[in-house]
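User: quick one, sequence for these tokens?
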């Protein structure tokens, strides 16, 4: 299993993402923005395509809204790529889109087969947790229900056995205070989690997990170290 989970956008070490990819091709999932105005959603999707192009990655968007709900159709849409990149936005909106399209099962299958790298930031990283409980301190869960017309989903994809809290201690990010509050909530509740500052990313490559960013001292040649786990 290969994951590149950033706090914000590509983080400080996109080279670590490229090093794990078998091919310089990607699909972008921007459905965390489905609750935003169409022009805002389009701009957000195009920003990710442009960022990947700057890294030499040929990327196209897969809009989960146009898929029929069969996970095999979703798997076909994601197949044959070096990277599945899931951008940030509203985690509850994203979770609903993944469920309605069958892409949640397709992503889990893809990772189980180690068929591509999963990369993403903010909501794209948070959705991999066992549960989305607590994230209502940052995003409104009823928004996802309103967009999908279905009840709120509180289950994450369960790819990770801990939750990710992005944007912690990140002055300038509009959600940093909310995320610091979420991290404190998880810490007091004894929920296993990893807190990320903007610029940082968790890189999982098989059995190896490291935290990377430009400001960290190198450990050997990996440019990082085990990410801190906060659980009590």
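Assistant:
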């Amino acid at each position: 299993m290969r994951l590149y989970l950033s706090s914000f956008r590509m983080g400080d070490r996109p080279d670590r993402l490229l090093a794990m990819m078998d091919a310089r091709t990607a699909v972008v999932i921007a459905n965390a923005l489905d609750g935003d105005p169409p022009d805002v959603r389009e701009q957000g999707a195009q920003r990710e395509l442009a960022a990947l192009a700057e890294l030499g990655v040929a990327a196209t968007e897969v809009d989960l809204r146009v898929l029929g709900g069969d996970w095999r159709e979703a798997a076909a849409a994601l197949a044959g790529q070096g990277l599945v990149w899931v951008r940030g936005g509203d985690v509850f909106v994203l979770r609903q889109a993944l469920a309605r399209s069958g892409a949640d099962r397709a992503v889990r299958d893809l990772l189980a087969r180690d068929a591509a790298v999963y990369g993403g930031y903010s909501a794209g990283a948070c959705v991999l947790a066992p549960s989305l409980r607590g994230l209502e301190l940052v995003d409104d869960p009823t928004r996802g229900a309103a967009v999908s017309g279905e009840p709120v989903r509180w289950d994450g994809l369960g790819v990770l056995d801990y939750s990710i809290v992005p944007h912690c201690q990140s002055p300038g990010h509009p959600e940093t205070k909310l995320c610091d509050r979420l991290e404190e909530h998880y810490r007091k509740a004894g929920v296993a989690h990893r807190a990320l500052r903007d610029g940082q990313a968790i890189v999982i490559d098989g059995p190896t997990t490291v935290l990377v960013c430009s400001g960290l001292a190198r450990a050997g040649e990996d440019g990082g170290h085990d990410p801190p786990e906060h659980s009590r």
